[in-house]
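Intended use. Records like the one below are meant for learning the mapping from a protein sequence to its folded structure. Do not use them to infer anything beyond what is encoded.
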Amino acid sequence: MQTLELSIPSPDPVVQGLVEQANRFLDAAKAPATRKAYAADISDYSAFKARIGEPFFAPGGEVLVLYVADLARRGKKPSTIARRIASIATEYHAAGYCETPASSFLVKEVLRGVRRTLGTAQERKSPLLLGDIERIVAACPARLLGLRDRALILLGFALGSRRAELAALEVRDLELTDQGLVVTIRRGKADQEGQGRQVPVQFGSRPETCPVRALTAWISAAGIGGSDGPLFTAVDRHGNRSSRALEPGSVARILKTAARRTGMDAAYTAKLGGHSLRSGTATAAAIAGASEREISALTGHRSREVRRYIRDANLFRASAAGRLGL
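Structure written out for the chain above:
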């Protein structure tokens, strides 16, 4: 994988200081998760090129088209294939090439054929609505692990945040007020520059589903109040708490485990993921009549994404089939 790095030979310490600063900015241009995915894409393409005996930076789009066919044969989704092609193009640019095979007419046509053949609809995780949330938090055990799960799920639903945002929260991001909590989301997928946003979380009308009370109980039991460390950490079956923040992927596993405690249908729990809390929040808000602007302000969604949840909420309410008298 090519590493973008500025190199200017100069004995001037001021110039070298500027070079070092510029390289730090280059390193920060992509989020860690993006760099990890990029590295995996380049590694996979490198292995394919080695297998067929071609150099990585081969001219023309013919070899890249063969790679697209190989990805499709391996069952990769169109969105994954498109991301791989984008990563390869970035690698060419990082190596100093102005033109990449990804921009060739041949590659573009093959990608269009992939989308027409395989379809572009993404598998969506099942949204968790209030009834499911109530069942899940009621089944959380009355020990440290259960307190963590309950606080994570209720706060995640109240915020409508992405799993990475939820896992990255720190104690310093919380401000308790008379009305509830003000939670600072310092960086998100749509906020790569780290401007941040503040989200209010009100006290719930019922103690058993109140995110503020659940969070306070977890902080107190875990002994993390007043610290500057991560808000949510791993807890083992013996009740030992780690000092390290949860990985974003852990949110989905915690949610699935918590759902299985309720005895929910296995096919349903299999379709749950870290996005289920976020999509559930947006869907529930749309069903309750919240506007596109209100939902966007809460969850940080882009407007076009919010419209999908509003359409889902209105699907049955606006259906003529409901008026047929069947």
